[in-house]
Predict the 3D structure of the following.
Amino acid sequence: MVLEQYSIGVGDRFGHQGAAQLQALEQADQRGVKMVPVWNKSFREHTIVGTQPADTRHAADGAVKERGWKNSYYVDADHIGLKNVDPFLDSSNFFTLDVADFIGKAAEEKDIEAFVRSMVKYTAAFPLSGVQTTTKVTEDDLYAIGRKYLFAVKEAGKIYRHIAEKKGEENFVAEVSTDEANEPQTPAQLFFILAALAEEGVRVQTIAPKFTGSFLKGIDYVGSVEKFTTEFEEDLLVIAHAIKTFDLPKNLKLSVHSGSDKFSLYPVIRRAMQKQNAGLHLKTAGTTWLEELIGLASAGGEGLRVAQEIYATAFSRIDELCKPYETVINIDRSKLPDPGKVRQWGSEEYASALRHTQSDPRYNLHFRQLLHVGYKVAAEMGGEYLRMLVKYREVIGQNVTVNLFDRHLIPLFFGTKKS
């Protein structure tokens, strides 16, 4: 199974927006860029919403049938490890192997010694043409890389082989994720992580490193765009060299997690991809749920009332809802609107506060982040919320399609930003 050059992670908390997401990809295809959808949903999200991995497969298959989608599509077991991968084996064909928790744990000394011995000949690759931030790599550097990352790589190998044993190596796509590590990986670290993955037999097709700056949920990038530009371009060069050096899959590409709404980075990523003829996997999962809320609010009446109630409940349970996401949100509670005031808002006020239009003075990134992590409230509403998704399907779907195509795919692949 070979993942295409461009793939978009289109997670869907409640499994109702697949057709609207596919419509955005169809519009991109009409403009000459083919990309494939990857419906991703993590063990954590399934637990919070009360769904099963098979539900994601069912929703994806249903959307494909509804739209008559003829191209490939994938269902991602997102951020899984050995302890929770088994329920995903039957329904998923894309697996994001999350080994961030194992970074920094000590591998056995004999394994580190073996790693250094096998890698020392590759230190001659540096300085690598076009990579300015990593010059010489010494044997001491290799020991440091081994001590920091080798245990995590070996864990990725265990997960990969477990999946391959159950499904067959040819029947799934593997991504390795280190994006939730404490520090960004340097070009040299990325190069030797890929080398170690090759030694473990992991046929990795996308890798999600931790980049500089903050990739917070549902809002724009926080950090130096200039530093990210250098980092992203150098990572592309490292990957291209690693593919040739270690016989890794030729379609290996970078993956950007929490990639939705990173509007300031999309022009940078587009130029780098064009320059290197590189691929991209971009995860835009949580933004779909926010577009559902915007659609409900825009519909007015019962839809607006439900959206207002969800915010009021989320506000009252902010500590509980934020805790699982505390490393990827930054909410200034003093800037959250009072729920009583929100209950008085009309459709346009609510939608404008939530919709990620940075030029609109009514947009509130703190309001947006709280609702981003507040999907548990909607899940607890059960049938009432799902009934709203059906009742207001058309207006919600329009918002989902416009958001994915105009705000994400246009600046990423066509160069004109729409807000």
